[in-house]
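Need residues for this backbone.
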């Protein structure tokens, strides 16, 4: 950057200075440097006392190219109206309220506008510079800090950075993904807003072991068109959501959940997704517990492993539904029971294809007795289950009755 030095000492010098200037301004006023010892009106003096006769006026500093870095002035507002101090391009450096004193100085003189630092002095009280204090999510309006939501649009999949704090992230593309930053990186109370204003489903994915609304780790959520929500970090491992605006045009949302066996209880946020798709490799029989509320679901079992998938409420004695691997069913929950809503008329259906089932969960069973019915124990076989035990097996070579025949002599 340009500097001005004394040819004898090598020290940085300033142009000839005017020690004091008293200005009364009725319009926005451009100042000039007191170059070569020539003084004139409206110069940048060491101390400038300003009276603005009306509101909305500016004191415009001259080109930063003409002075060294460190060139400074003290500007004091002795009038009743606030005014702003700007660089040569009209960019606000400081807003000076009545009675406030600001010390402004050049920090970069490589451009006409330059860069300026400010220090606000109080007159018996402290007066902070709002523009200096404004951070992410805040904007200086005059001498006060005000909340703002900066809008950032995305048309391709992206990962949000820490600078997205308090930001309105608007999706404008087709199908895509927004990945959240780590909660431990952004810290507690960090928040951001996401809205799907695009043409396809937007998937919101947490990072690493982070969870959304205490769902299983790394479970994503999907925003339909026109949906939006706010996400807040707890600083450790969880994102909490609120203000989840659901679309009135696209009411059906999908949950993609990975299962490994055992019992999984859906949160209210997970269960709010009408379409449920389950994947993963089961290492034991899987039970999924849905909330005890009225809801219509479609369940798709895309898991692998030789184990069953049963869906129920937490109500003891409530009816359950089983979904065979590779199958999708429509189910109704009445708050207590789950009923398989798939139905067919015997007079119109040419055939009825059922999943294999098992002796513990026969495919063709009864609402009041789910462990009794018919199942497929092997190829070209029909098994009869009674109370979860094999009572008979029919094959092409005969009938096998493992518990024997009671009630008479044969």
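Answer:
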């Amino acid at each position: 950057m340009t500097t001005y030095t004394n040819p004898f000492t090598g020290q940085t010098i300033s142009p000839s200075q005017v020690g004091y200037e008293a200005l009364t301004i009725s319009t926005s006023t451009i100042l000039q440097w007191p170059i070569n010892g020539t003084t004139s009106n409206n110069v940048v003096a060491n101390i400038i006392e300003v009276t603005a006769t009306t509101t909305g006026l500016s004191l415009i500093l001259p080109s930063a190219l003409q002075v060294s870095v460190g060139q400074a002035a003290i500007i004091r507002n002795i009038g009743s109206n606030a005014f702003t101090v700007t660089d040569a391009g009209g960019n606000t450096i400081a807003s000076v309220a009545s009675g406030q004193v600001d010390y402004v100085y050049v920090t970069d003189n490589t451009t006409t506008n330059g860069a300026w630092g400010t220090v606000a002095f109080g007159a018996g009280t402290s007066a902070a510079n709002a523009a200096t204090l404004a951070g992410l999510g805040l904007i200086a309006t005059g001498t006060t800090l005000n909340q703002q939501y900066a809008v950032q649009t995305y048309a391709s999949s992206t990962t949000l950075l820490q600078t997205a704090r308090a930001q309105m992230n608007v999706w404008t593309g087709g199908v895509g993904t927004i990945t959240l930053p780590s909660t431990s990186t952004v810290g507690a109370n960090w928040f951001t807003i996401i809205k799907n204003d695009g043409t396809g489903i937007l998937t919101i994915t947490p990072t690493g072991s982070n969870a959304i609304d205490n769902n299983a780790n790394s479970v994503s959520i999907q925003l339909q068109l026109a949906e939006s929500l706010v996400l807040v970090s707890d600083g450790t491992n969880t994102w909490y959501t609120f203000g989840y605006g659901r679309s009135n045009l696209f009411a059906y949302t999908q949950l993609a959940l990975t299962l490994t066996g055992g019992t999984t209880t859906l949160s209210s946020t997970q269960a709010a997704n009408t379409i449920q798709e389950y994947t993963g490799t089961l290492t034991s029989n899987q039970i999924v517990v849905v909330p005890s509320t009225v809801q219509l679901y479609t369940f798709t079992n895309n898991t692998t492993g030789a184990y069953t998938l049963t869906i129920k409420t937490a109500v003891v004695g409530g009816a359950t539904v089983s979904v065979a691997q590779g199958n999708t069913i429509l189910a109704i929950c009445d708050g207590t029971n789950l009923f398989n809503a798939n139905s067919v008329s015997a007079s119109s259906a040419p055939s009825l294809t059922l999943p294999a089932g098992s002796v513990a969960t026969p495919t063709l069973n009864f609402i009041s007795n789910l462990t009794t019915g018919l199942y497929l124990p092997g190829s070209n076989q029909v098994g009869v289950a009674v109370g979860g035990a094999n009572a008979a097996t029919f094959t092409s070579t005969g009938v096998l009755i493992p518990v024997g025949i009671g009630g008479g002599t044969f």
